[in-house]
Amino acid sequence: MNHISDYLTQHKDRFLNELIELLKMPSVSADPAFSQDVLDTAEKVKIALLDAGCTTAEIHETAGYPIVYGERIIDSDLPTVLVYGHYDVQPADPLELWDSPPYEPVIKKTAEHPEGAIYARGACDDKGQMYMHVKALEFMVKTDQLPCNVKFMIEGEEEVGSDNLEIYVANNKEKLKNDIILISDTGMIANDVPSVTTGLRGLSYVEVQVTGPNRDVHSGLYGGAVANPINILAKMIASLHDENNRVTIPGFYDKVEELSQDERAEMAKAPFDLEEYKKALDIEAVYGEKGYSTNERNSIRPTLDVNGIWGGYIGEGAKTVIASKAYAKISMRLVPNQDWKAITELFISHFESIAPKGVTVKVTPHHGGQGYVTPINTIGYKAASKAYETTFGKKPIPQRGGGSIPIVALFEKELESKTILMGFGLDSDAIHSPNEHFGVWNYLKGIETIPYFYQYFTELSN
Amino acid sequence: MNHISDYLTQHKDRFLNELIELLKMPSVSADPAFSQDVLDTAEKVKIALLDAGCTTAEIHETAGYPIVYGERIIDSDLPTVLVYGHYDVQPADPLELWDSPPYEPVIKKTAEHPEGAIYARGACDDKGQMYMHVKALEFMVKTDQLPCNVKFMIEGEEEVGSDNLEIYVANNKEKLKNDIILISDTGMIANDVPSVTTGLRGLSYVEVQVTGPNRDVHSGLYGGAVANPINILAKMIASLHDENNRVTIPGFYDKVEELSQDERAEMAKAPFDLEEYKKALDIEAVYGEKGYSTNERNSIRPTLDVNGIWGGYIGEGAKTVIASKAYAKISMRLVPNQDWKAITELFISHFESIAPKGVTVKVTPHHGGQGYVTPINTIGYKAASKAYETTFGKKPIPQRGGGSIPIVALFEKELESKTILMGFGLDSDAIHSPNEHFGVWNYLKGIETIPYFYQYFTELSN
Hints:
Two copies of one chain form a homodimer.
Chain A lengths: L3 H20 L11 H18 L3 E5 L6 E6 L7 E7 L19 E3 L8 E3 L7 H16 L6 E7 L7 H9 L8 E4 L11 E6 L1 E10 L5 E2 H4 L6 H10 L22 H7 L6 H8 L12 H4 L5 E10 L8 E2 L2 E10 L5 H14 L6 E10 L2 E2 L5 H14 L4 E4 L6 H9 L3 E3 L15 E3 H22 L1
């Protein structure tokens, strides 16, 4: 890869400005209020792919938001890289906690990002990381160094479960045929500790509703005499963990892959400073399943977390009411071998079974996906490792991630190819949170590293 | 009391229309957005008092919403009745559950109210019940039958804790001097089972906040590894009751008055149909403290209920976030001898003590008040009993109420007079709920009964 540093130096400002323009578009897939913005963003991504050198780029309609597909096929005998990313973003609320508006990107220097970071919803997850691939393609095409074929599949529903992508992939196996799938939608340990994510957790996301009296009632007249749906919901949620913080749903751990002591010892070698971790979150202590370390708890162990709860009077002041209904959104992160549909069923039947008389319970599954583990002895992993070694000066650490990209397991099943997760964000980038950001250094480092992956993958494929 | 029936027949439509005009004013004291409406309502009440025959009616400013004071003193040797009521109302939300807009009163016939009921926020609590007293005065004055002196004290902060009324009462003891306090802000058992409330529960209302990480974080990256404030809040709330649904706060029951078996047997004679109660609320079973009946649970026993809970993502769809903060509004109904300030302190120290490491907890007291029990061997109670007997054809049943009028205990302490609680609403009137209403029959029956109370109280005082 000749001239990549020069090319970056020359085009750095434009690369940043193009990303900033993309970040100005509030492509929130979860909220119908933003539907036109989501559609506009798809169009913008299509044009960016054509500008970067795709010979074809198309908007493929689905039952939901469209998939942007692009490709540059140079020789059918050469390997094909399929890049997956998403152009939709998480909702930005709570808005009042943002230091600058989520769709008015600004670059600010921080301790972790002395060269500055772009602050905006989607900066890291996933517009910034997806756009690195577009700009890497531009570099390879413009300098005539693209060593293989490339396909892009950029979706608009990753943050709401990728339901329509599943159908799209199943119906377009031939079009999407590839030798390796490349995704940047995860993070790395630190700017001087590159890592490649070799595992992802699965997900089951449900919403629960507990109904007591058929109407809100006065807490003086009915207090203590009828089941209060909020108290009951709290009790039911509390009962989902035991005193060791293990999930109490019968069968929940049945298929959980137990790592050997050797594997756990290997994992424990990754650099991690508990005091810094606590300091960064401003917490006095960590909290989780007994018998596991923090890094194990957020990667190789399944979890159950309430993501939202509401019921009764939540306005200013006081209202002495017993609500008719209380609600919660609950998600479970799953590990390989836990089937998300089976776990969802286990949750539903357990949650219904623990409801006391006097309330009724409704559980609605939102979405989910399987966990994933990738081996490190493949040419895909080796190419990635070599690419990092070239640009970072050191080999990346293989690391299990705690997040979920539900579609990865599906890719393997439907397209019969492995996925390489080259993430360039940091855990502190506040994805899904107020003040999400992405380091300028990380953005450019990604653009610099990706072309080497193409080069080594093509070489190793021979 | 001559001609009361005739007077009612003649003025019934006007009495209803005047109340309807009052109900159109959204005097929500809890929400600053309605502050002008609250002030306008005070002004309207003042004019209504003058129109009804008060010789003086004044708006008395406080640090919050004003108190409307009116009086008609006919002879300082005669006894004085002090009428207390409130012109503020509970918030109307959730608005979507109202069948008609809360501030556009309509009269509809129901099974319980074959003569129709007025549907509006405040119809029963307390504008309708308060206005019965204004119209009863009008009758007595216009027909020259007022047998004693009367004072009105109508406040605008009952629904938010009456903080400023406390100060007002303490500072105006001479002005408010009286022989009996008369309040209609409770209910009766049924239209053919009149009752007088002889006890009220006290109240302690607090808001709690649980903070985990210093920002919302991604549930994939941090799930299972840090304390989730919503899960912790649920666990803390759940732990506030034991398996017998008794409150677990140490010392909570220490001063609770235990009724004798005889007293409980007497209470159990009040007509009550558990099947109808469950049917009206659409619940399969009642729920509450072990060893007590429904009517005991909601009157002579203290309770702890969550009135509102919120945290995390509560919008449409799914967001995989772990919230930084979770909140709940919690109220405790207290029984006589439980001091609300002491109970609030017990709650705060207990709640803080059960917070696990990894979260911080803040408890903010909202308001509270003492419980109250009134004896039935006073001339006030006897006058009320006789008044009901005259207009209902049967003696009222003395009944402990589950609600709280925190100011009643204060009246006794500061003004050294007893309170008679003549309520004409029904439990099914949905006060504090959507579709609050007040029977037209009940409204008119109140106006008919109140003048007899004045007559008998004056006679018995001699």
